[in-house]
Write a structure and sequence with these properties.
This protein is of the alpha/beta class and 144 residues long. The chain contains 5 helices and 5 strands; from the N terminus they run βαβαβαβααβ. The chain is globular and about 50 Å long.
């Protein structure tokens, strides 16, 4: 079974560099890549049933928008790369969810960009790269 490389992708310039790096690595190793995008989600237990229903609807809309605007174009751009490409679109804590996707896909490596679209939150709560490097079940490559 060929190995897989999970690429954390948010559309930022550093994520694009990470994707380019991962594609080159996949070609060299005969591996596939899983382009993973994580929408941050924090569950609330104190919402009313009406609020929960509205939130679920918004969640579905966000997933559809991310699939159409972010993942589909990047997958289309890699059609002629010679690398098998799949995607994972999830809600959750970014580092934990990327680690979970990695386990589910039996991937051998995670590649992420050093900075992404969440720079303010990373300064407040810690970087995704740092959290992932500590929690990942496989080696993590952080691309500058």
């Amino acid at each position: 079974m060929p190995s897989k490389i999970v690429v954390g992708f948010d559309g930022s310039e550093s994520a694009k560099r990470a994707l380019d790096f991962a594609v080159a690595q996949a070609k060299a190793k005969g591996a596939g890549i899983v382009i993973a995008h994580v929408l941050e989600w924090s569950p609330y237990s104190f919402l009313t049933p009406t609020e929960l229903e509205e939130r679920h609807k918004r969640r579905g809309e966000e997933l559809a928008r991310a699939e159409t605007a972010l993942l589909k174009p990047v997958v289309d751009s890699l059609k002629d790369s010679g690398v098998e490409v799949s995607t994972a679109l999830k809600y959750g804590h970014i580092a934990e969810t990327l680690a979970s996707v990695t386990k589910a896909e039996s991937a051998s490596q995670i590649v992420i960009g050093r900075t992404g679209h969440s720079s303010l939150s990373s300064r407040l709560f810690g970087s995704v790269a740092g959290s992932l490097a500590q929690a990942a079940p496989v080696p993590v490559t952080i691309v500058p």
